[in-house]
From TrEMBL:
Region span, Disordered: 155-187
Subunit annotation: Homomultimer. Associates with the dally/ magu complex.
Record's bilayer topology term: Multi-pass membrane protein
Transmembrane domains' residue ranges: 38-59, 65-90, 102-119, 125-142
One function term, GO molecular function aspect: calcium channel activity
UniProt record similarity statement: Belongs to the calcium channel flower family.
Name of the protein in question: Calcium channel flower
Main location as per UniProt: membrane
Species of provenance: Cephus cinctus
Keywords: Calcium, Calcium channel, Calcium transport, Cell projection, Cytoplasmic vesicle, Endocytosis, Endosome, Ion channel, Ion transport, Membrane, Transmembrane, Transmembrane helix, Transport
A single cellular component GO annotation: synaptic vesicle membrane
Pfam families for the chain: Cg6151-P
Length: 187
């Protein structure tokens, strides 16, 4: 067993099918899951830091810090349910989200990350929510699917051209398009 296979077996979720059912590259799956896990931990920490700042007289933005902590917890329950084993419903929620398409996860992550930044554009909030938003962007890329091969666009190019070819250029080369509208006319 190679190192890559050992790493893949460690990163598998419990009960996951070892054969991939979609055409998403493995590194993109690990990037989404890894950034979601690390980003949610940092978002929770930075949100708590923003909420604890009220003790020291920093009364700006405790609501956005709480929102960021809740968003970080939700992302962590989906991406790394092993970190939240103390909550009963986490594994069920994670399995339910795994059955959904990638675009839905991307939309939820991006929508969760926007309100804290709108409420308080502070560096802690921007960084923590930015990591959650970036996780959503990665899942958005995953929803696009596998990149096509080079010959695919040539096959998809239509052979029937429905517009007439442009007319010959005027004999007088000093005539501009504005002066002679018969040079080229869109149909």
């Amino acid at each position: 067993m190679s190192f890559g296979e050992k790493l893949a077996s460690i990163m598998q979720r419990p009960g996951q099918d070892p054969v991939a059912k979609d055409d998403v590259p493995f590194w993109l799956k690990y990037a989404g899951r890894g950034l979601g896990t690390v980003g949610s931990l940092l978002a929770i920490f930075l949100g708590a830091f923003k909420c604890i700042g009220i003790i020291f007289g920093y009364i700006s933005c405790p609501i956005s810090g709480m929102w960021q902590m809740v968003a970080g917890f939700l992302v962590m329950t989906v991406e790394a349910p092993c970190c939240c084993m103390f909550v009963d419903f986490v594994q069920n929620l994670s399995d339910w989200v795994e059955k959904k398409p990638y675009w839905s996860r991307a939309a939820v992550y991006c929508l969760l990350a926007i309100p804290p930044v709108l409420l308080c554009p502070d560096l802690n909030i921007i960084f923590g929510s930015g990591l959650i938003f970036t996780t959503g962007v990665i899942y958005g890329f995953m929803s696009l699917g596998k990149k096509g091969s080079r010959p695919d666009p040539a096959v998809m190019t239509p052979t029937d051209v429905s517009f007439p070819p442009p007319s010959a250029p005027p004999a007088d080369q000093h005539t501009t398009l504005m002066e002679d509208p018969d040079v080229w006319r869109p149909t």
